[in-house]
């Protein structure tokens, strides 16, 4: 018999193409040595060409999944991905308090504020942005928006390092302990520069930029790798560092699959 491993819970949507969502989260948890558990919020119909549609899981089934695993198996860290609707977000927030997950309960909680796919297909109903801001951000140990999500959440367009810092400050006003503003392909530099801040420290994290269009699932994979490191009790800056190293390998080894955008690779 083995010792019980650390556990991580993802509250997110299913991707039938296997590149993003719950599928990416679970294989990242596995690769990072934690036992992965899921509360599925929505089932998407998608392939490499985009999201053709999705169905939400009934709210009471979403919250029952969280309760079932938290009360029996225990959760060392949790993350959210696609949450689909304000109704689901509000119920998830309430349930996390009930099972004592989040920054105020010493169980790290990462919010990846997923709003749309890379193809621009919506994964969140419009009215749900406000629920992410008010219900999830104040409970988060870390939030991980990309630049599109920063613009949706704050109205700010990040164009350089100074505006990236300003955006981090605005997002911290919404209550998370830490924010990671992902720079992606913003800067005309050979590196991707993400900014991590808790309002006191401003840490620039550079990563190599790879010329590939196959980056499906990269946001989910990064957030999951960070969550796994938090489950292993790393502090936030170290966990983000580990997550960046993990996603860099996955992007370097991304592969074509289907006619459109292929996934980042879990094989390395
Ligand atoms: N589908 C699901 C279920 C997701 O959770 C996400 C991202 O979080 C996506 C699709 C979009 O992935 P990408 O933007 O990497 O294409």
Automatic annotation (TrEMBL):
It is an enzyme of class 2 (transferase). CDD domains: HMPP_kinase. GO terms for molecular function: ATP binding; hydroxymethylpyrimidine kinase activity; phosphomethylpyrimidine kinase activity. Keywords: ATP-binding, Kinase, Nucleotide-binding, Thiamine biosynthesis, Transferase. Its EC number is 2.7.1.49, 2.7.4.7. Pathway: Cofactor biosynthesis; thiamine diphosphate biosynthesis; 4-amino-2-methyl-5-diphosphomethylpyrimidine from 5-amino-1-(5-phospho-D-ribosyl)imidazole: step 3/3. It catalyses: 4-amino-5-hydroxymethyl-2-methylpyrimidine + ATP = 4-amino-2-methyl-5-(phosphooxymethyl)pyrimidine + ADP + H(+); 4-amino-2-methyl-5-(phosphooxymethyl)pyrimidine + ATP = 4-amino-2-methyl-5-(diphosphooxymethyl)pyrimidine + ADP. The keyword Transferase applies. GO terms for cellular component: cytosol. Residues 15-264 form the Pyridoxamine kinase/Phosphomethylpyrimidine kinase domain. SUPFAM superfamilies: Ribokinase-like. One of its GO terms (biological process) is thiamine diphosphate biosynthetic process. Catalyzes the phosphorylation of hydroxymethylpyrimidine phosphate (HMP-P) to HMP-PP, and of HMP to HMP-P. This is Bifunctional hydroxymethylpyrimidine kinase/phosphomethylpyrimidine kinase. It comes from Amycolatopsis rhizosphaerae. The lineage of its organism: Bacteria, Bacillati, Actinomycetota, Actinomycetes, Pseudonocardiales. The gene is thiD.
């Amino acid at each position: 018999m083995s010792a019980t491993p650390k556990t991580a819970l993802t509250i997110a949507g299913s991707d039938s193409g296997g590149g993003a969502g719950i599928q990416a989260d679970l294989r990242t948890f596995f690769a990072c040595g934690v036992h992965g558990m899921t509360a599925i919020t929505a089932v998407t119909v998608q392939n490499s060409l985009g999201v053709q549609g999705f169905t939400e899981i009934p709210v009471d089934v979403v919250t029952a999944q969280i309760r079932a695993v938290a009360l029996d198996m225990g959760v060392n860290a949790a993350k959210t991905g696609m949450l689909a609707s304000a109704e689901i977000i509000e119920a998830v927030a309430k349930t996390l308090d009930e099972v004592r997950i989040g920054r105020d309960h010493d169980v790290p909680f990462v919010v990846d504020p997923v709003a749309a796919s890379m193809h621009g297909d919506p994964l969140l109903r419009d009215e749900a942005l406000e629920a992410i801001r008010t219900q999830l951000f104040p409970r988060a140990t870390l939030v991980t928006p990309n630049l599109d999500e920063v613009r949706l959440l704050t109205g700010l367009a990040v164009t350089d390092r100074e505006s990236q810092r300003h955006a981090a400050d605005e997002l911290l006003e919404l209550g998370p302990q830490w924010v990671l503003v992902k720079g992606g392909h913003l800067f005309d530099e050979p590196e991707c520069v993400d900014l991590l801040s808790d309002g006191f420290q401003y840490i620039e994290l550079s990563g190599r930029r790879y010329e590939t269009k196959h980056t499906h699932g990269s946001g989910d994979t990064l957030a999951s790798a960070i969550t796994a490191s938090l489950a292993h009790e790393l502090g936030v800056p170290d966990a983000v560092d580990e997550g960046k190293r993990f996603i860099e390998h996955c992007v370097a080894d991304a592969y074509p699959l289907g006619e459109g955008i292929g996934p980042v690779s879990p094989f390395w």
